[in-house]
Amino acid sequence: TAPGPRSYTTLRDEAVKLFNSLQQLESERDPVPLMQGVLQTCLDLPPLVDEIYCQLVKQTTEPPVPGGQGDLHYWQLLTCMSCTFLPSPPVLRFLRFHLDRTENRFPASEMAKYACFIREALGKTKGRECVPSLEEILVLMQRQEMICTVHCPGAPACSVAISSHTTAEEVAQELVSRLGLSQSPNLFALYEQSRRREQPVGSATLLADVLTRFE
Q: Which GO BP terms sit in this record (predicted)?
Protein backbone atom coordinates (compact mmCIF):
# COMPACT_ATOMS: atom_id res chain seq x y z
CA THR A 1 0.00 0.00 0.00
CA ALA A 2 1.06 3.60 -0.47
CA PRO A 3 2.42 5.46 2.53
CA GLY A 4 -0.36 6.70 4.80
CA PRO A 5 -0.69 9.25 7.58
CA ARG A 6 1.82 8.93 10.38
CA SER A 7 2.07 10.28 13.88
CA TYR A 8 4.70 12.97 14.31
CA THR A 9 6.35 14.79 17.19
CA THR A 10 7.67 18.35 16.99
CA LEU A 11 9.10 19.81 13.78
CA ARG A 12 12.48 20.04 15.46
CA ASP A 13 12.46 16.35 16.38
CA GLU A 14 11.28 15.35 12.90
CA ALA A 15 14.01 17.48 11.32
CA VAL A 16 16.59 15.59 13.41
CA LYS A 17 15.09 12.26 12.33
CA LEU A 18 15.28 13.32 8.69
CA PHE A 19 18.89 14.39 9.11
CA ASN A 20 19.69 10.94 10.53
CA SER A 21 17.88 9.33 7.59
CA LEU A 22 20.02 11.33 5.17
CA GLN A 23 23.17 10.14 6.95
CA GLN A 24 21.93 6.57 6.64
CA LEU A 25 21.10 7.07 2.96
CA GLU A 26 24.76 7.42 2.05
CA SER A 27 25.52 3.77 2.80
CA GLU A 28 22.08 2.22 2.27
CA ARG A 29 22.14 -0.75 -0.12
CA ASP A 30 18.46 -0.31 -1.05
CA PRO A 31 17.80 3.43 -0.70
CA VAL A 32 14.30 3.45 -2.27
CA PRO A 33 12.15 2.82 0.87
CA LEU A 34 14.25 5.33 2.83
CA MET A 35 13.82 7.92 0.10
CA GLN A 36 10.07 7.36 0.05
CA GLY A 37 9.96 7.78 3.82
CA VAL A 38 11.75 11.14 3.60
CA LEU A 39 9.39 12.28 0.86
CA GLN A 40 6.32 11.21 2.87
CA THR A 41 7.49 13.17 5.91
CA CYS A 42 7.98 16.26 3.74
CA LEU A 43 4.50 15.82 2.25
CA ASP A 44 2.94 15.53 5.71
CA LEU A 45 5.08 18.33 7.20
CA PRO A 46 5.60 20.99 4.47
CA PRO A 47 7.77 23.27 6.65
CA LEU A 48 10.50 20.61 6.40
CA VAL A 49 10.73 20.76 2.58
CA ASP A 50 13.18 23.68 2.59
CA GLU A 51 15.21 22.00 5.33
CA ILE A 52 15.68 18.83 3.29
CA TYR A 53 16.56 20.78 0.15
CA CYS A 54 19.23 22.68 2.07
CA GLN A 55 20.59 19.49 3.63
CA LEU A 56 20.82 17.80 0.23
CA VAL A 57 22.59 20.78 -1.29
CA LYS A 58 25.04 20.64 1.61
CA GLN A 59 25.60 16.90 1.20
CA THR A 60 26.25 17.23 -2.55
CA THR A 61 28.69 20.14 -2.14
CA GLU A 62 32.32 19.01 -1.83
CA PRO A 63 31.45 15.33 -1.20
CA PRO A 64 34.31 13.04 -0.11
CA VAL A 65 33.95 11.01 -3.33
CA PRO A 66 32.28 13.04 -6.08
CA GLY A 67 30.13 10.70 -8.15
CA GLY A 68 30.51 7.86 -5.65
CA GLN A 69 27.56 5.72 -4.58
CA GLY A 70 26.81 7.79 -1.49
CA ASP A 71 26.99 11.05 -3.43
CA LEU A 72 24.68 9.71 -6.15
CA HIS A 73 22.14 8.56 -3.56
CA TYR A 74 21.86 12.19 -2.42
CA TRP A 75 21.49 13.36 -6.02
CA GLN A 76 18.80 10.73 -6.60
CA LEU A 77 16.82 11.90 -3.58
CA LEU A 78 17.26 15.49 -4.74
CA THR A 79 15.84 14.37 -8.09
CA CYS A 80 12.78 12.86 -6.38
CA MET A 81 12.33 16.01 -4.28
CA SER A 82 12.41 18.19 -7.40
CA CYS A 83 9.59 16.15 -8.97
CA THR A 84 7.45 16.35 -5.82
CA PHE A 85 7.96 19.70 -4.07
CA LEU A 86 8.93 23.25 -4.95
CA PRO A 87 11.12 24.96 -2.35
CA SER A 88 10.55 28.55 -1.26
CA PRO A 89 11.91 31.22 -3.65
CA PRO A 90 15.12 31.90 -1.64
CA VAL A 91 15.93 28.17 -1.40
CA LEU A 92 15.05 27.72 -5.08
CA ARG A 93 17.60 30.41 -6.05
CA PHE A 94 20.18 28.72 -3.81
CA LEU A 95 19.39 25.34 -5.39
CA ARG A 96 19.65 26.66 -8.96
CA PHE A 97 23.06 28.17 -8.14
CA HIS A 98 24.15 24.77 -6.80
CA LEU A 99 22.96 23.02 -9.98
CA ASP A 100 24.81 25.50 -12.20
CA ARG A 101 27.96 25.17 -10.13
CA THR A 102 27.84 21.36 -10.29
CA GLU A 103 27.42 21.34 -14.08
CA ASN A 104 30.32 23.76 -14.48
CA ARG A 105 32.65 21.84 -12.16
CA PHE A 106 31.80 18.31 -13.32
CA PRO A 107 30.66 18.54 -16.97
CA ALA A 108 29.41 15.28 -18.52
CA SER A 109 29.41 13.59 -15.09
CA GLU A 110 26.48 11.75 -13.53
CA MET A 111 26.09 14.63 -11.08
CA ALA A 112 25.81 17.09 -13.98
CA LYS A 113 23.18 14.89 -15.64
CA TYR A 114 21.14 14.84 -12.43
CA ALA A 115 21.57 18.60 -12.08
CA CYS A 116 20.21 19.13 -15.60
CA PHE A 117 17.27 16.79 -14.96
CA ILE A 118 16.46 18.53 -11.67
CA ARG A 119 16.50 21.98 -13.27
CA GLU A 120 14.01 20.85 -15.91
CA ALA A 121 11.80 19.17 -13.32
CA LEU A 122 11.67 22.29 -11.15
CA GLY A 123 10.20 24.17 -14.11
CA LYS A 124 7.28 21.71 -14.26
CA THR A 125 6.60 20.73 -10.65
CA LYS A 126 3.44 22.19 -9.13
CA GLY A 127 3.03 19.97 -6.09
CA ARG A 128 1.82 16.42 -5.60
CA GLU A 129 -1.10 14.78 -3.80
CA CYS A 130 0.99 11.67 -3.15
CA VAL A 131 4.69 10.97 -2.85
CA PRO A 132 6.26 9.03 -5.74
CA SER A 133 5.57 5.31 -5.76
CA LEU A 134 8.45 2.87 -5.33
CA GLU A 135 8.37 2.29 -9.10
CA GLU A 136 8.49 6.02 -9.81
CA ILE A 137 11.45 6.49 -7.47
CA LEU A 138 13.30 3.71 -9.28
CA VAL A 139 12.80 5.30 -12.69
CA LEU A 140 13.64 8.78 -11.36
CA MET A 141 16.91 7.39 -10.04
CA GLN A 142 17.68 6.48 -13.66
CA ARG A 143 16.27 9.78 -15.02
CA GLN A 144 13.75 7.82 -17.07
CA GLU A 145 9.99 7.77 -17.64
CA MET A 146 7.44 5.27 -16.37
CA ILE A 147 5.35 3.08 -18.65
CA CYS A 148 1.65 3.29 -17.89
CA THR A 149 -0.81 0.75 -19.34
CA VAL A 150 -4.24 2.09 -20.26
CA HIS A 151 -7.08 -0.29 -21.15
CA CYS A 152 -9.28 1.10 -23.92
CA PRO A 153 -12.82 -0.24 -24.65
CA GLY A 154 -12.89 -2.03 -27.97
CA ALA A 155 -9.14 -1.68 -28.48
CA PRO A 156 -5.97 -3.35 -27.20
CA ALA A 157 -4.34 -1.98 -24.06
CA CYS A 158 -2.02 0.92 -24.80
CA SER A 159 1.34 1.57 -23.16
CA VAL A 160 2.11 5.23 -22.60
CA ALA A 161 5.36 6.73 -21.34
CA ILE A 162 4.68 9.27 -18.59
CA SER A 163 6.78 11.51 -16.37
CA SER A 164 6.10 12.79 -12.87
CA HIS A 165 4.37 15.78 -14.48
CA THR A 166 2.09 14.07 -17.04
CA THR A 167 -1.61 14.83 -16.56
CA ALA A 168 -4.60 12.62 -17.31
CA GLU A 169 -5.68 15.04 -20.03
CA GLU A 170 -2.33 14.74 -21.81
CA VAL A 171 -2.55 10.93 -21.81
CA ALA A 172 -6.17 10.99 -23.00
CA GLN A 173 -5.22 13.29 -25.89
CA GLU A 174 -2.35 11.02 -26.89
CA LEU A 175 -4.61 7.95 -26.86
CA VAL A 176 -7.30 9.74 -28.90
CA SER A 177 -4.64 10.55 -31.49
CA ARG A 178 -3.27 6.99 -31.53
CA LEU A 179 -6.71 5.47 -31.95
CA GLY A 180 -7.60 7.81 -34.81
CA LEU A 181 -10.43 9.49 -32.90
CA SER A 182 -9.26 13.08 -33.25
CA GLN A 183 -12.27 13.98 -35.42
CA SER A 184 -14.78 12.29 -33.10
CA PRO A 185 -17.39 14.62 -31.51
CA ASN A 186 -17.27 12.54 -28.32
CA LEU A 187 -15.42 13.55 -25.17
CA PHE A 188 -12.81 11.20 -23.75
CA ALA A 189 -11.44 10.77 -20.25
CA LEU A 190 -9.42 8.32 -18.19
CA TYR A 191 -11.01 6.24 -15.45
CA GLU A 192 -9.37 4.55 -12.50
CA GLN A 193 -10.93 1.26 -11.48
CA SER A 194 -10.51 -0.69 -8.28
CA ARG A 195 -12.43 -3.61 -6.80
CA ARG A 196 -14.84 -1.24 -5.09
CA ARG A 197 -15.38 1.58 -7.54
CA GLU A 198 -14.75 3.16 -10.90
CA GLN A 199 -14.37 6.91 -11.22
CA PRO A 200 -13.12 9.43 -13.78
CA VAL A 201 -9.64 10.87 -13.32
CA GLY A 202 -9.65 14.66 -13.27
CA SER A 203 -8.06 16.16 -16.37
CA ALA A 204 -5.41 18.01 -14.33
CA THR A 205 -4.64 14.98 -12.12
CA LEU A 206 -1.07 13.71 -12.33
CA LEU A 207 -0.98 10.10 -13.48
CA ALA A 208 1.94 9.46 -11.15
CA ASP A 209 -0.33 10.22 -8.17
CA VAL A 210 -2.92 7.74 -9.47
CA LEU A 211 -0.25 5.06 -9.78
CA THR A 212 0.94 5.71 -6.23
CA ARG A 213 -2.60 5.15 -4.93
CA PHE A 214 -2.63 1.79 -6.72
CA GLU A 215 0.76 0.73 -5.37
A: signal transduction
Quick check: 44 and 51 in contact, CB under 8 A?
no
CA angle 100, 88, 102 (to 5 degrees): 15
| pLDDT tens, per residue, the chain with 215 residues | 344 457 788 898 999 999 999 999 989 999 999 999 999 999 999 999 999 999 999 999 999 999 999 999 999 999 999 999 999 999 999 999 999 999 999 999 999 999 999 999 999 999 899 999 999 999 999 999 999 988 887 778 889 999 999 999 999 999 988 888 887 887 788 888 877 778 889 999 999 999 898 77
> 11-141 falls under which CATH superfamily?
MyTH4 domain (1.25.40.530)
Of residues 68, 66, 79, the one with CA closest to residue 106: 66
Which residues are within 8 A (CB) of 52 and not within 5 positions of it... i.e. 6 or more apart? Answer: 18, 22, 38, 42, 81
d(C-alpha 108, C-alpha 49), whole Å: 29
What's the CA gap between 15 and 42, in Å, rounded? 10
Kindly report, as residue ranges, where domains of CATH 3.10.20.90 are found in the chain: 146-214
Cα 14 from Cα 145, distance rounded (Å):
31
Listed in order, the ranges of the chain carrying CATH 1.25.40.530 are 11-141
Tell me the CA end-to-end span of the chain in Å, nearest whole number.
5
pTM to 2 decimal places:
0.89
